[in-house]
UniProtKB/TrEMBL annotation:
Pathway: Carbohydrate metabolism; galactose metabolism
TM region(s), chain numbering: none
NCBIfam families: galE
Broad class of enzyme this protein falls into: isomerase
Name under which the protein is recorded: UDP-glucose 4-epimerase
Record Gene3D superfamilies: NAD(P)-binding Rossmann-like Domain, UDP-galactose 4-epimerase, domain 1
GO-annotated biological processes: galactose catabolic process via UDP-galactose, Leloir pathway
Entry keywords, A to Z: Carbohydrate metabolism, Isomerase, NAD
Swiss-Prot/TrEMBL catalytic activity: UDP-alpha-D-glucose = UDP-alpha-D-galactose
Species for this entry: Mangrovicoccus algicola
Enzyme Commission number, as recorded: 5.1.3.2
Stretches assigned to the NAD-dependent epimerase/dehydratase domain: 14-262
Length: 337
């Protein structure tokens, strides 16, 4: 995995909240490959125990301040990568309180515990769902905030909480707003697996493999070239590489930063389906359904700021690369069927 772009000093302990999840497990693998010790902190609500295999596993809930304090005191990490969250856009619309509880209250508990333990570096996973809908326009970090949905609202609140806390305490932090993360570890050791799965790429792969009832396209009447939503897909290994660069930035004494992470290209739902069909040689059975609440027509990233400040460029920006690695994971022995 090419997380080796960010080097930093060897042997640092880094706490990874959500280390059993999709992106967090890839971060743990990349950290361990560089000689760091990734301590996963996870309650396994959407993640998997067997994905925690690159460092110590600490079971715990973000909202449990005493448990966080105990884990931070024992491992004394140099930094925290904070991935743990709930992130199902449709579910957030149905049950916003649960999202604010985990994503905002959980982040507050983490910040309190870090302050008490003297852990002074944080990298936070935010989302492009914090932006206002600007259909067709490339979104950079200066674009007005919406947010687009209740999930985005909880992430925006968590961002504000981090910024206010940092201003008062000197906590050094980097906030990343990811676009749509896709793909898998090229060795197919780990990958994306949620139950239920809501994300387009794994759902299309499952449909191509004849698993489940086929794929519903959420809306075909958007003002886009083929009527379906355009999203900016970014490879999970590129996202992780940016986190390693952020850790270097913080370790060098770098100040607070906010960066989008995307590949800079919009792909429609129909294009993703066609790419899955091309990769698998199988057709994806689809039905056309209504729009999904909380969606907008287009979300495409401008990531110039991360390139300039961190030297980050996506190395796997081609959709085919994301689908090939996701497919290898989906069809390989590690996938949970
Ligand atoms: N996947 C994407 O496309 C995407 C895009 C933008 C932002 N993000 C953000 O990136 C982060 C990681 O996303 P992911 O796709 O890996 O999600 P995921 O669901 O695979 O991983 C989240 C992990 O957090 C854990 N978790 C949830 N609530 C917890 C709690 N209260 N205490 C402890 N652990 C808890 C889960 O068990 C899981 O292992 C999230 O913050 C998400 O909002 C993801
Ligand atoms: O069965 C499906 C699944 C998805 N979609 C559509 O495909 C697009 C991508 O959806 P999905 O893969 O579910 O990702 P998002 O819901 O956009 O959410 C991801 O991307 C967001 C940024 O856009 C992040 O904020 C979230 O954390 C992350 O989960 C959207 O237009 C969906 O409506 C379908 O049409 N059918």
């Amino acid at each position: 995995m090419d997380g080796k772009r960010g080097r930093g000093s060897l042997g640092a302990t880094v706490m990874v909240t959500g280390g059993a999840g999709y992106i967090g497990s890839h971060a743990c693998k990349a950290l361990a490959a560089l000689g760091h010790v990734p301590v996963s902190f996870d309650n396994y609500s959407t993640g998997w125990r067997e994905a925690v295999k690159y460092g110590p596993a600490e079971e715990g809930d973000l909202r449990d301040g005493a448990r966080l304090a105990e884990v931070l005191a024992r491992h004394r990490p140099r930094a925290v990568l904070h991935f743990a969250a709930l992130s199902d856009i449709a579910e957030a619309g149905r049950d916003p309180a649960r999202y604010w509880d985990t994503n905002v209250v959980g982040t507050l508990r983490l910040l309190e515990a870090m302050a008490a333990a003297g852990t002074g570096q944080l990298v936070f996973s935010s989302t492009c769902a914090v932006y206002e809908a600007h259909d067709g326009r490339v979104l950079d970090e200066t674009c007005p905030l919406g947010p687009l949905n209740a999930y985005g609202a909880s992430k925006r609140a968590a961002e504000d909480l981090i910024r206010d806390t940092a201003a008062a305490s000197g906590l050094r932090h980097v906030i990343f707003r990811y676009f749509n993360v896709a793909g898998a570890d090229p060795s197919a050791e780990i990958g994306e697996c949620h139950r239920p799965e809501t994300h387009l790429v794994p759902r299309a792969l499952a449909a191509a493999a004849g698993q489940g009832a086929g794929l519903r396209i959420n809306g075909t009447d958007y003002p886009t070239p083929d009527g379906t939503c355009l999203r900016d897909y970014v490879h999970v290994c590129d996202v992780v590489a940016a986190h390693l660069l952020a850790l270097d930035h913080l370790q060098r004494g770098g100040g607070p930063e906010l960066f989008n992470l995307g590949s800079g290209h919009g792909h429609s739902v129909r294009e993703v389906i066609a790419a899955v069909e091309a990769a698998t040689g199988r057709s994806v059975p689809v039905e056309e359904g209504p729009r999904r609440p909380g969606d907008c027509a287009a979300l495409v990233s401008g990531s110039a700021r991360a390139a300039e400040a961190l030297g980050w460029t996506p190395r796997h920006a081609a959709l085919e690369d994301m689908i090939a690695t996701a497919r290898a994971w989906h069809e390989g022995p590690g996938y949970r069927r």
